[in-house]
Amino acid sequence: MWAAIKARLRRASPAEPEPSAPSGADRPGAVAPSPPPSGKADSSAAGSGAAPTGRDESVFTEGFLGRRLKEATIDDVLDDLEIVMLQSDVALPVIEKLRRDLRRELAGRKLRFGADAEDAIRSTLERSVRSILARPPIDLANAVRNQPVKPYVILFVGVNGTGKTTTVAKLAGWLRAQGLSSVIAAGDTFRAGAIEQLLVHGERLGVRVVRQQEGSDPAAVAFDAVQHAKAKHLDVVLVDTAGRQHTNENLIEEAKKIRRVVAPSLTLFVGDALSGNDVIEQARLFDQAVGIDGLVLTKLDADAKGGAALSATFVTKKPILFVGVGQGYADFTPFDPDWMVRRLFAEGTAG
Ligand SMILES: Nc1nc2c(ncn2[C@@H]2O[C@H](COP(=O)(O)OP(=O)(O)O)[C@@H](O)[C@H]2O)c(=O)[nH]1
Ligand SMILES: [Mg+2]
Predict the structure, then answer these.
(1) CA-159 nearest atom, ligand 1
(2) Which of 56, 58, 225, 247 could form a disulfide with 185 if both were Cys (CB 3.0 to 4.6 A apart)?
(3) Quick check: pTM over 0.85?
């Protein structure tokens, strides 16, 4: 995200130093608009007037020649940034928050040319993003270890193809690495091949998969798996479910029924980061209809933008517990806000 914002900022950098600035009264002893204060040389516009592109978009001209930033200037900058953020899958409510934070931080501040302004915007954005991502986490391994009664039941919901089944398998592997045992309930009895897919995972991982016939009642499968876990003193039951659309009443009813029957300790929404803004709408609807406790975001390995993760946790006010970063069992890790901030603010990646 940051790389795209930065590119935008630089495109919008002033093409020429404003001849009347700096006014001595306004900034005594301040550095004139050249050279740029750091080695960030592509603000070469400073003094030379040779900005490579977009020299007409001089939204920074006033503010970044060392004068106080005016409200109107900030709004121009923010309008400009909004476009980039939307392209990075950052949802509107998040953008509004970031705008508020930026306006509050930047209003009335004196900023020198390009790099200074860029740094101020970057650090403000970074702080805001970090505060969004640092929602109180759920420490799953700890929750499982401290559960009063075994097993700890986790229900997975989400639309088709987002990575639920893969996540169930990955989590079984992760739990085992934490010294915790699990059983998988093949609750996607709807899609041909879904049960088979889980059996293959179960075999590879050495984790039991409880199943019934295709077309049977998923709540009954989940119930069986809980009974199995009780009998074997297993720590966790992982309940896979059928995807389909979140608008599908049957699916929602099915998930509600599973909830009633097995009373999950945790309901996780699995969202595909690549589906951009859709993932936010899905998470919200599943939360309203079924109730979710947290999020798993998959396919972050293929997602250069990163805004979906940020938006989903902001909009639902639920923490991200895990992220999927590939198709292998090991491509799965507890969510670390710092990691996400580093990704979003990486210098090199477009998006
Ligand atoms: N690149 C990548 N692919 C993933 C990830 N998680 C799942 N997938 C792939 O997404 C596809 C759908 O996954 P699946 O678990 O069957 O989705 P479900 O329909 O929600 O159960 C499969 O090809 C998975 O290998 C991930 O984190 N990264
Ligand atoms: Mg599946």
Answers:
(1) 20
(2) 225
(3) no
Pocket test for ligand 1, best of 244, 295, 298 (most atoms within 8 A of CB): 298
- Contact in structure between 33 and 61 (CB atoms under 8 Å): no
Lowest mean pLDDT segment, chosen from 1-10, 41-50, 303-312: 41-50
Asked if pLDDT for residue 249 goes beyond 80, the answer is no
Neighbours of 186 (CB within 10 A): 28
Average pLDDT, the chain: 81
The owner of tokens 């495109």 is 11
Residues with CB under 5 Å of ion ligand 2 are: 164-165, 188
Residues 228 and 240 sit within 8 Å (Cβ to Cβ): no
Whether residue 208 is predicted with pLDDT greater than 80 in this model: the reply is: yes
Beta strand extents in the chain (DSSP E only): 152-157, 182-185, 208-210, 236-239, 266-272, 294-298, 320-324, 332-334
Q: If pLDDT is split at 50, 70 and 90, which confidence band does 30 have? A: very low
Distance 163 CA to ligand 1 centre (A): 4
Residue nearest to atom 6 of ligand 1 (CA): 163
pLDDT tens per residue across span 93-133: 999 999 999 888 877 776 655 557 778 888 989 999 999 99
Q: What is the 3-state secondary structure (H, E, C) of 156-185?
A: EECCCCCCHHHHHHHHHHHHHHCCCCEEEE
Q: How many Å apart are CA 12 and CA 10, to the nearest integer?
A: 5
pLDDT-derived band of residue 216, with 50, 70 and 90 as boundaries? very high
Ligand 1 pocket: which of 327, 331, 332, 335 to mutate (most atoms <8 Å of CB)? 327
Query: Of ligand 1's atoms, which has the minimum distance to the CA of residue 158?
Result: 20
Burial class (CB in 10 A: 0-12, 13-18, 19+), 191: middle
Tokens matching residue 180: 């915790």
